[in-house]
């Protein structure tokens, strides 16, 4: 019923997918389930883990944007943060994550070290991966951290201002400050 539930459900699925791949890798190195170091499986597991980790980061950003809108523009939140819009955003993020990580199928493979096959990056792609790692660091670390910290700072600032106004004055003054407050005052004037 709530748009935030879709972000959280998608985040739970992405995190579960990432942790499941880690479990398979762990079992593979312990000799319990030796499928990770096989051709095809190697690329699939690396692809799933990178898609899930990318998706996880951007779902947190999307959820933070929704929280920011709810605090900054509380009267507009019901019109902006809808379930259908959340479904569209989750779908778009999934498509982008799936497409942006497709290069994994070409750069990951089985490398034989002293007769033991290991799922690794193919050595011919080391220079390409330096560029990809730089881009990935910006897209899945630096950019999201800046966005999340900025929005959470603004959320905290707005909540502190609201608290101060509430303690110093009436609830009407708290609600009637800012852009949404002006809309509330206009609607009260029109009704009265």
Automatic annotation (TrEMBL):
Every G-protein coupled receptors family 1 profile domain range: 1-192
A Gene Ontology cellular component where this protein is annotated is: plasma membrane
Q: What is its main location?
A: membrane
Provide the membrane topology annotation: Multi-pass membrane protein
Can you say where in the cell this protein is located? Membrane
| Molecular function terms from GO | G protein-coupled receptor activity
Which Gene3D superfamilies does the record cross-reference, listed alphabetically?
A: Rhodopsin 7-helix transmembrane proteins
Identify the InterPro entries for this entry.
Answer: GPCR_Rhodpsn, GPCR_Rhodpsn_7TM
Task: Look up keyword Chloroplast and say if it applies.
Answer: no
- The protein's superkingdom reads Eukaryota
Its transmembrane ranges are 7-29, 44-65, 86-111, 131-155
Q: What keywords were assigned to this record?
A: G-protein coupled receptor, Membrane, Receptor, Transducer, Transmembrane, Transmembrane helix
Task: Report the family membership.
Answer: Belongs to the G-protein coupled receptor 1 family.
The protein here is known as G-protein coupled receptors family 1 profile domain-containing protein
Lineage, uppermost ranks = Eukaryota, Metazoa, Ecdysozoa, Arthropoda, Hexapoda
